[in-house]
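Thread title: Can someone regenerate the structure for this chain?

I was given the following input by a collaborator and told the matching structure tokens would be attached. They weren't. Posting the sequence so someone can regenerate them.
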Amino acid sequence: MESLVGPVLAASGAVVGVIVAVLVVLFLGFIFLSSAIRVVTEYERSVFFRLGHVRPEAKGPGVIFRFPIVDRLVKVTLRVEVVDIPPQAVITKDNVTISVDAVVYFQVVDPVQAVLGVDNFRFASQRIAMTSLRSIIGRHELDNLLAHREDVNNELRTVIAASTGHWGVEVRQVELRDITLPPELLRAMARQAEAERERRAKVIAATGELEASKELSEAAAKLYESPGALQLRALQTLAEVASEHNSTLVFPIPIELLSGFVTHGRAAGDSVPPVAVIPPAPPRPPAPVGRSSGSSQPGAGDPAPGGASPSSGSSAEDLWGQEPPPPPSS
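Best answer:
Regenerated them for you:
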């Protein structure tokens, strides 16, 4: 019996050893495979290093096999990345201090160069964008910066792309996000805008007055050529005013209407009473100079003997404009 137990125990120990060995091999194989197989997604590329030497082309997408300890993979994303530039205090060309922040969109086009050319291409791209932003903004005046922001964005993109192109990074777009102005400058710009609007309003009003005067001048010339049109216009104005139901209506009658009636009456043979026209009074002659006390000859202005005035027989027309005779002395 004892002779049978020994071989059985030995056989069972060998089986257990084999099972343990198989398990260990499977475990080691799993660890090896998990470290040797890498999966690269569609938007990524893997830079392959073997014994420290880089392969000329990036691997991916798909499954990539590597030898542990011998090979090393560095994954680089090919998607467009966004880098925020924090607000930067910048002095413009016309010595105005402003705060500007921007957004930079870049994409890796050469994964091998992005890994070999710079330590951290994201951080390096952000620093290049910050320094370029200060440099470009300092070349422009504030008015040009506010009015031509698109030109500033294109210039920024060109300058940043010239620096990041050596790293295999392409700048897709640069946008100035916000320009913060000092409060004093904002108030000054508000006053300037208000003055500009008032100037435009005055110019528009003056232009309208000029055009209206030209139209009125042409209308007056047309009405002057046709007197009947002037009368029709006057009657039309009277009808428009009467439609408002006013209790008192003051309407001037043009003299052309009266002249038309007078002309029509003379043509029909009606007797038109003459209009008495009073002539203006002639100027009064200067006062006569006083006579000397020793003179005995009567002057032109002395009364005739008997108290009768020399002009007593004159008519009223002859006495018009003459001074009355002096009263007789007592």
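Confidence is low (pLDDT under 50) at residues 290-317.
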